[in-house]
Amino acid sequence: MIAPFTLLFEDDPNPGPGLPSSIRTLYRGDWRLPTIPERRPAIWTNFVVSHDGRIAFNQPGWNGGNAISRNHRHDHWLMEVIRARADAILVGTATLRAARRHRWAPGEVFNWPAFTQLRAAEERPPLPALVILSASGDVPAAAALTSPRDLFLITTAQGAEHARSRHPHLTCLVGTDGQLDLTAAMTTLRQQYGIRTLLSEGGGRTYGSLLAHQLIDEVFLTISPIIVGNPAPPTPPRPGLVEGVAFAPQDPPRLRLISLRRVDDVLFQRAGIVFPTDGKVASFTLEAQ
């Protein structure tokens, strides 16, 4: 087991149920769920980021979050807490390719009975549904796709046709005009499939897509003390926390800090997101994934 976190700040505005006492004891505080919207799931994301805002080294053998967190056990534990409260987990195909053996299942990175018990107490299925975001429908073979769970693909009409030829068990969510419609897909997941809470574990481009559509409620951010840097071309860049979207400087989205915890030199931040009142985005691109 791990030592308790050190709580530095907490001001949780949410009215919903909190964590069981066994988890609160280690977390040194609570995490109350928000009121679940009727039109879409409550959506949060979870990242580990370096001091300079990078989420991956982007080189063979050093491409996952563990390289940034240095396999920090508290980061693993908190990831499991967050997964335990998710009805569905969202990933992009780049994340799926980078972690082909990962199953996105409770207890995968930190096995503790309390996580399974929390899912059962909140009436969630043993495995969260997996939702894949891909405009092209080019979904790689991965261990997560063979697990006994609901599988969804948010894609275009052309992407759906391509994906079904390789993965006929995927439920494809396509916009009414045949294009990728992230907002409509979230409505469908909530209203037709009963997905109340959704965790995004995609990369910076997936996070950018959710931000551009104002579909994020909270962000969990583990801030690692390491410095990653970013090489000069032609070496491939190392991705940042948000990619593929740029916000107008007059009124960008901002965070409202909910809690801050510390373990050694690692900080654990939880925050809500306040979006611009006009909803303007300077530029946004969703490349085929």
Automatic annotation (TrEMBL):
Q: Which domain of life is it from?
A: Bacteria
**Residue span(s) of domain Bacterial bifunctional deaminase-reductase C-terminal:** 42-264
Per the UniProt entry, what is one GO biological process?
Answer: riboflavin biosynthetic process
Single GO MF annotation: 5-amino-6-(5-phosphoribosylamino)uracil reductase activity
Q: In which pathway does it act?
A: Cofactor biosynthesis; riboflavin biosynthesis
Task: Report the coiled-coil segments.
Answer: none
InterPro entries tied to this protein: DHFR-like_dom_sf, RibDG_C, Riboflavin_Biosynth_HTPR
UniProtKB keywords: NADP, Oxidoreductase
**Which sequence ranges are marked TM in the entry?**
none
Tell me the Pfam families matching this sequence. Answer: RibD_C (PF01872)
Signal peptide start and end residues? none
Q: Write down the PANTHER family for this protein, in alphabetical order.
A: 2,5-DIAMINO-6-RIBOSYLAMINO-4(3H)-PYRIMIDINONE 5'-PHOSPHATE REDUCTASE, DIHYDROFOLATE REDUCTASE FAMILY PROTEIN (AFU_ORTHOLOGUE AFUA_8G06820)
Protein name, per record: Bifunctional deaminase-reductase domain protein
Q: Which organism is it from?
A: Chloroflexus aggregans (strain MD-66 / DSM 9485)
